[in-house]
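Quick one, tokens below. Sequence please?
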């Protein structure tokens, strides 16, 4: 069960929170009942000594309820936040391992939705969905027991109120909701993803004059989510009304049923008042069940989505075929570089992207991969990185491979901060400055750093906006070099540069990366050097055929 796996590390703490929450609810009910008894008994003006026990009891239950409620909140929040911290890390780890083998995770802001919105939804719903039914069931059982012992005649009214509150009210709320809570969650997720996409593309939207249209569409989506929220609130109100009415009617019915015994003297009026006021105190724990049941479908949807991400699975297997990174074996004798022999690639559930790929690359001789969009260049990178094991054929890579994407994100930090992100750990050991200087020199940025007053501690602005396009791309490559990988995968490094800047950057990279194995993926044949090996992933001429790449010398 997904919920059990989610709560397993904090199961004892969460169970403790449920127990304390139940005690807090029982204290609240006992406080109402005892207060009613005290008021009725005091109306007869007996000696104060007859009331002292009840007075102390009211104080005890009043203070105890507050203390227990506060303690419950501490336990619940501590357990939930610990769970979410662990879940967010597991989600990030799972999505990082599976991102390239589950391409849908990279589309439409799904990573943002999973790591932020889904986890926030679990945070909000977990205490509201899991704990209230447990508390309400315990309180109902205790109330029925107390009624059976004190005023058996009122037992049918109390049982009917419990049934109406715990069964009829949630059913009415679900009927009125008609999946509005789930729809609201889905709409909010969509608004989040589209807002994030619009912010990423804000410059392009303004340049093309369509920003207002996109904002209007977002406003329409937000209004739809608001309407779903209003329908959900109406359903919540209906369920709460049923619960309040059931407990109120039960209080009146209990008084009517107990009246004959009170009149004939077999039942003390104060005892009857206890049962009557108990029903009014049950509104709060019973009403929470309606909220829990109504939100459960949305909570279940989010939990299933998280479960599909693999974040709640056990420790990943190193030999996992599609859920982890299958690191390729090294070349025979530890020869530097990489080698592909008859490699075919197939995405899970899809058709072959290419077959029969054969290529060799080593230090000092780049492998340039070209081909039209959709020919399989990104798929080949996934194979080299180990995210997608070859369907057939064999692959050897000596050492580690590191990928520099086409649009690598630069953080609003310093040059040093961005470079250190490339290290396996965030710590900066002795000698890190030397490593950073060497990486910057390899990509031709040492002159820039030397001219900056703050050097490596110079801030580069949001997305590296204080740097030119070429400098941003060079810095991204330098960060890739900081990984210490022996194989560097460059994905369209000149895509956003003019021809002159692109030639200058590649010239610096060829000089600085002479001791690394480099795979260059590019649409631009001008990026290919005559000494490079060229792997052409040309689109097949026959519709439905599979790409059979050609390895040809560059000219």
């Amino acid at each position: 069960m997904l919920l059990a796996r989610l709560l397993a590390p904090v199961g004892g703490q969460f169970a403790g929170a449920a127990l304390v929450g139940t005690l807090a609810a029982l204290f609240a009910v006992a406080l109402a009942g005892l207060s009613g008894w005290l008021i009725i008994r005091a109306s007869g003006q007996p000696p104060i000594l007859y009331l002292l026990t009840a007075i102390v009891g009211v104080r005890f239950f009043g203070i105890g309820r507050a203390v227990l409620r506060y303690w419950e909140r501490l336990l619940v929040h501590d357990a939930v936040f610990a769970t979410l911290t662990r879940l967010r890390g597991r989600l990030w780890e799972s999505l990082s391992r599976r991102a390239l083998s589950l391409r849908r995770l990279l589309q439409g802001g799904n990573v943002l939705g999973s790591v932020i919105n889904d986890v926030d939804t679990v945070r909000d719903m977990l205490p509201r969905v899991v704990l209230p039914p447990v508390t309400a069931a315990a309180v109902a059982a205790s109330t029925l027991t107390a009624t059976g012992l004190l005023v058996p005649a009122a037992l049918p009214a109390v049982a009917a109120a419990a049934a109406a509150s715990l069964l009829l009210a949630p059913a009415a709320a679900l009927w009125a909701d008609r999946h509005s809570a789930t729809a609201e969650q889905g709409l909010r997720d969509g608004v989040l993803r589209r807002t994030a996409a619009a912010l990423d593309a804000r410059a392009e939207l303004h340049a093309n004059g369509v920003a207002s249209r996109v904002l209007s569409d977002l406003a329409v989506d937000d209004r739809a989510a608001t309407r779903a929220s209003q329908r959900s609130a109406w359903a919540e109100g209906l369920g709460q009304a049923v619960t309040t009415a059931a407990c109120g009617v039960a209080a009146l019915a209990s008084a009517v049923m107990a009246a004959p015994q009170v009149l004939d003297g077999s039942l003390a009026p104060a005892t009857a008042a206890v049962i009557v006021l108990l029903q009014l105190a049950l509104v709060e724990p019973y009403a929470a069940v309606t909220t829990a049941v109504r939100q459960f479908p949305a909570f279940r949807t989010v939990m299933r989505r998280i479960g599909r991400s693999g974040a709640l699975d056990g420790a990943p297997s190193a030999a996992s075929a599609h859920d982890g990174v299958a690191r390729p074996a090294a070349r025979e004798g530890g020869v530097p570089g990489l080698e592909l022999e008859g490699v075919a690639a197939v995405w899970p559930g899809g058709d072959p992207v290419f077959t029969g790929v054969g290529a060799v690359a080593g230090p000092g001789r780049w492998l340039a991969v070209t081909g039209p969009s959709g020919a399989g260049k990104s798929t080949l990178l996934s194979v080299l990185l180990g995210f997608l094991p070859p369907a057939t054929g064999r692959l050897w890579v000596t050492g580690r491979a590191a990928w520099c994407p086409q649009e690598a994100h630069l953080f609003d930090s310093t040059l040093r901060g961005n470079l250190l992100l490339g290290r396996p750990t965030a710590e900066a050991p002795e000698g890190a400055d030397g490593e950073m200087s060497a990486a910057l020199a390899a990509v031709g940025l040492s002159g820039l750093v030397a001219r900056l007053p703050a050097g490596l501690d110079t801030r580069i602005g949001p997305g590296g906006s204080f740097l030119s396009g070429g400098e941003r791309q060079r810095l991204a490559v330098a960060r890739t070099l900081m990984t210490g990988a022996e194989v560097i995968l460059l994905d369209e490094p000149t895509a956003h540069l003019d021809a002159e800047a692109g030639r200058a950057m590649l010239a610096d990279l060829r000089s600085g990366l002479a001791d690394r194995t480099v795979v260059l993926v590019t649409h631009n044949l001008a990026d290919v050097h005559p000494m490079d090996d060229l792997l052409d992933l040309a689109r097949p001429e026959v519709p439905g055929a599979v790409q059979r790449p050609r390895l040809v010398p560059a000219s």
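The chain has 16 helices and nine strands. The longest strand covers residues 352-361.
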